[in-house]
Write a structure and sequence with these properties.
Shape: rod-shaped
Radius of gyration: 28 Å
Helix content: 40-55%
C-alpha cells in the first residue's frame, strides 16, 4: 500500500492535461469558424453591393437605352463602392462591388430593353457572378 500514495495526484494531473488539450482544440476550432463566418459575411456584403449596381443600371435603362457608366459608395462614407457599366450594343451590365477591406465581387447580367419610348421594358435574361 505504501507504493500507491502518489497515484491519485498523477491521475488528477493527467485528467487536467486532457481537459486543457480539449479546451485548446475547441478554441482553435472556434477561431477558425469565426474567420470563415467573417469571410462569408464580407463576400455576401460585396455581392449585395454589386447587385445594387445592377439594379441601378436597370432603373436607368427604364428611362434611356443609352450606355451607362456609374460608381457610387454605399452607404455614403463607408468606403464600400460599386462600379457599373452597361454597353447597349451587347446588352451586358457589369457591376463590381468592392468593400473598403478589399473584398470584391463582380456580376454580369444580360438584359433585353424593349419599347419605343420611355419607360422602356427591361428584362433580365440572366444574372451571374463573373
Amino acid at each position: 500500500m505504501m507504493n500507491n500514495k502518489g497515484v491519485a495526484l498523477l491521475l488528477a494531473l493527467f485528467t487536467l492535461l486532457i481537459i486543457a488539450l480539449l479546451v485548446v482544440a475547441f478554441l482553435e476550432t472556434t477561431t477558425i469558424d469565426l474567420q470563415i463566418v467573417s469571410n462569408q459575411l464580407n463576400r455576401n456584403k460585396a455581392l449585395y453591393i454589386a447587385d445594387a449596381g445592377v439594379e441601378y443600371a436597370v432603373s436607368c435603362l427604364k428611362s434611356s437605352k443609352a450606355n451607362v457608366t456609374y460608381s457610387a459608395q454605399l452607404p455614403s462614407g463607408s468606403g464600400d463602392t460599386y462600379s457599373v457599366t452597361y454597353v447597349s450594343s451587347s446588352g451586358i451590365i457589369t457591376s463590381t462591388g468592392t468593400l473598403a477591406s478589399g473584398e470584391s465581387v463582380k456580376l454580369g447580367a444580360k438584359v433585353s430593353v424593349t419599347g419605343s419610348s420611355s419607360p422602356f421594358t427591361v428584362k433580365i435574361l440572366y444574372w451571374r457572378e463573373l
